[in-house]
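@channel sequence for tomorrow's demo:
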Amino acid sequence: MRRGTTVNEGMPDNSGCGLQEPFALQVLGNEMEPEFPDRCVIIVEPTDRCRDGMYVFVEVEDVRWFRRYRIDAEGRERLVADNPLYPDIELNGLQWRVLGVIIQRNIRRQIKHYAYEAPQPPTPATSPEITDLTAPRGKPRTTGPA
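structure tokens (generated this afternoon):
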């Protein structure tokens, strides 16, 4: 990294770019092929959050990685290269942080956008009907969900 660059955004201090503006990176290597070939350009949306399946730009133990974030049912988190020749990076027990999510890829002016669906709010559990046992005999009164 050259002088005058900040760790948070990778932009020169005098660039005038905001901390939360998308930025471009060039992919170097074949770790994310075939989806992201060597030398393609990606656009990163700065954020500190991600969900399972997202392509992310992260910092793990002071090293920056471009990978897919995965979390299993037991809560084990890892970074996965699309190219099966490269091993997963297990995140549990390591210091790491999300720097952004990939929102666009450009290969020789052919652009692909990545839109991640917002998590759906949990649906409220339906409560069973309640029967009023204090109602006059033979006329139990039922009500809807509590």
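heads up for whoever presents: Strands lie at 23-26, 41-46, 55-60, 63-71, 77-80, 89-90, 96-107, 110-113, 130-132, 141-143.
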